[in-house]
Amino acid sequence: MIEQGIDTATLEGRAMDGPTAARGRGRVGGRRPKLTEDQATLAQQLYDAREKTVQQIADLLGVPRSTVYGHLDKANAMPRRPEKTMVTKP
After folding, report:
1. 44 burial level (CB within 10 Å; 0-12, 13-18, 19+)
2. How far apart are CA 88 and CA 90, in angstroms?
3. What b-and-e string marks burial along 3-36, b requiring 16 or more CB atoms within 10 Å of the CB?
4. Res 15: pLDDT
5. Please, what is the end-to-end C-alpha distance for the chain in angstroms?
6. Distance CA 71, CA 35 (A)
7. Which tens digits make up the pLDDT trace of 54-80?
8. How far is CA 49 from CA 20, 44, 45, 63, 74, in A?
């Protein structure tokens, strides 16, 4: 319920004052990453080298598989299986 006498612009301005003040104190907001940079790098190296499965990496780091997948750099990752090619009969 909006108080009488306070317009929407004032309310929006007040709502933005908190995050703006937090950024001034060095806060950026949002959830902290579950894995540290070193852990994410290790996970990427193990994944690229095909030394461990994603489940094994997750167990090693104590996080769910979805967290490992979220931290993997899929753009530079090696594919796990070769691409399927169409075989044509002569």
Report:
1. middle
2. 6
3. eeeeeeeeeeeeeeeeeeeeeeeeeeeeeeebbe
4. 80
5. 75
6. 8
7. 999 999 999 999 999 999 986 665 666
8. 43, 8, 6, 20, 14
